[in-house]
Design goal:
Ribosomal Protein L4, Chain: A; 8 strands; elongated; alpha/beta; eight-stranded mixed beta sheet; single chain
Length: 247
């Protein structure tokens, strides 16, 4: 999915349809402009995502130097009189089976990213998906048990095409298991969502409990994430803590 570049200081507020789990519309919801209507900073997204991906690297690659390769303890031939270049070991780097010169060793690829940058990148990613009408809101996940078939039907009712990111609450275990077998669906807890998760998805699905910020329901009461504790500050703050810990 493309990214909106060089946008205004504050984009127009986005209003999306609030759907019921079993089908049907429950009205319209105006997403929080502070989260879903901010300009997209592409260099910021690049720096944050690069740091998050670098921090995921295990860094366990390792090669052996000439001192670590087995064998080569004896001088292969005498120093003088053979006409060959002097050699001290058959495990020197220029020998087949010898050690590796300047090869990789275990190291950390961790990159420290300021928490405010991580939070701002998440808001940029969510705003980009909102501007592309790629945000879905449902009242809740009503899975009686792990049912992949029911999960497929649910996504079909929402009109989700391509890669889907389903944001889960603390008690959505049945939903997590229902989506687990779908290769085009990724699930993430609401307090661990990152900018990279959002950018990898074509559609992002929230519930009333996991939707960040204070979103106003058209013609009704406000819809917030207070029920699950995932407020705007918590979502952005926790995602920054996760990135900091992963990095």
């Amino acid at each position: 999915m493309s990214i909106v570049r060089n946008g205004p200081v504050r984009l127009e507020p986005v209003t999306v349809t609030r759907s019921a789990f079993g089908g049907g519309e429950l009205g319209r919801v105006r997403l929080d402009p502070a989260i879903f209507s901010v300009p997209v900073n592409v260099p910021l997204l690049h720096q944050v995502v690069t740091g998050q991906l670098a921090s995921r690297r295990a860094g366990t690659q390792s090669t052996k130097t000439r001192a670590e390769v087995r064998g080569g303890g004896a001088k292969p031939f005498r120093q003088k009189g053979t006409g060959n270049a002097r050699q001290g070991s058959i495990r020197a780097p220029h020998y087949a089976g010898g050690g590796i010169a300047l090869g990789p060793k275990p190291r950390s690829y961790e990159q420290k990213t300021p928490r405010k940058m991580v939070q701002a990148a998440l808001r940029c990613a969510l705003s980009d998906r909102a501007q592309h009408e790629a945000v879905r809101v449902v009242d809740h996940y009503d899975f009686e048990g792990p049912k992949t078939k029911e999960a497929v039907a649910f996504l079909g009712r929402l009109g989700c095409d391509g890669t889907v990111l389903v944001v889960l609450g603390r008690n959505d275990e049945a939903a997590a298991k229902s989506f687990a077998n779908l290769t085009n669906v990724a699930t993430v807890p609401a307090d661990q969502i990152t900018a990279y998760d959002v950018l990898c998805a074509d559609v992002v699905v929230f519930t009333d409990d996991t939707l960040p910020g204070e979103s106003e329901q058209a013609g009704g009461a406000a819809v917030s994430a207070e029920a699950s504790g995932t407020t705007d500050q918590d979502v952005a703050g926790n995602s920054g803590e996760e990135a900091d810990s992963d990095e």
